[in-house]
Design goal:
- The mean pLDDT is 83.
- The longest helix has 28 residues, at 23-50.
- The protein has two domains: 5-50; 52-185, minor pseudopilin epsh fold.
- It has helices at residues 23-50, 52-72, 186-189; strands spanning 5-10, 13-18, 77-83, 88-94, 107-112, 117-124, 129-130, 134-140, 143-144, 148-154, 159-164, 171-175.
- 18% of the residues are buried.
- The protein has three helices and twelve strands.
- By secondary structure, it is α+β, with helices and mostly antiparallel strands.
Length: 191
């Protein structure tokens, strides 16, 4: 007897049949693997949905930090625009002196936010704030023109603040509606 094969006698003729998978066994294995892949895919999509707020906020913070880093290392100027009405943001390189118009070739990134990441309002460190329309943060070689915060809300109504610090050029994420430090007026410095 040969290991791994069987000898079959049919009508006086000897055939050697090797042990192999049948079509049915292969189909069962393929179905099991498909079900496992489907289960893994559903788990991945569930995890991504849970982390979509976190990933969108991380994209906002990293985009702003990239803009200030690039501006501080060059003579280029950038503008980060948060559109509260449209729930979107845009980063552009400023190439003209007309700051009111955004040219198509200036746009570096233009993204819409999902309903899991809502911009509630923007407050600047000079006290101005807006609850609708566009808020603009400009970055140049010297740093941010204005500091401030972008207040966001997740799907569980938790608030978070993206804080733009014009003194140290760092963009950070803080939990809650962060209270900004206000600059001291020049008149108060003399007393």
């Amino acid at each position: 007897m040969v290991t791994g094969s069987k000898t079959v006698h049919t009508c006086g003729i000897r055939y050697k049949r090797k042990n192999a998978y049948t079509l049915t066994e292969m189909l069962v294995v393929i179905i099991i693997i498909s079900l496992l892949l489907l289960l893994a895919q559903v788990n991945i999509f569930t995890m991504l949905r849970r982390n979509s707020f976190k990933s969108e906020v991380q994209l906002l913070v990293s985009t702003m930090q990239s803009a200030i880093n690039a501006a501080s290392q060059s003579e280029r100027r950038y503008e980060f625009i948060v559109d509260i009405t449209e729930q979107s943001f845009l980063l552009r390189e400023i190439t003209t002196s007309d700051l009111s118009e955004v040219l198509e070739d200036e746009i570096i990134i233009n993204e819409n936010l999902s309903d899991k990441c809502i911009v509630v309002f923007v407050e600047f460190d000079d006290g101005d704030s807006t609850f609708d329309g566009r808020a603009k943060f400009r970055a140049g070689h010297a740093g941010w023109a204005y500091g401030g915060k972008i207040v966001l809300q997740d799907e569980y109504d938790q608030k978070y603040s993206i804080v733009v610090n014009r003194m140290d050029r760092i963009v950070t994420l803080k939990k809650g509606d962060y209270t900004l430090l206000k600059p001291i007026p020049k008149d108060d410095l003399s007393t």
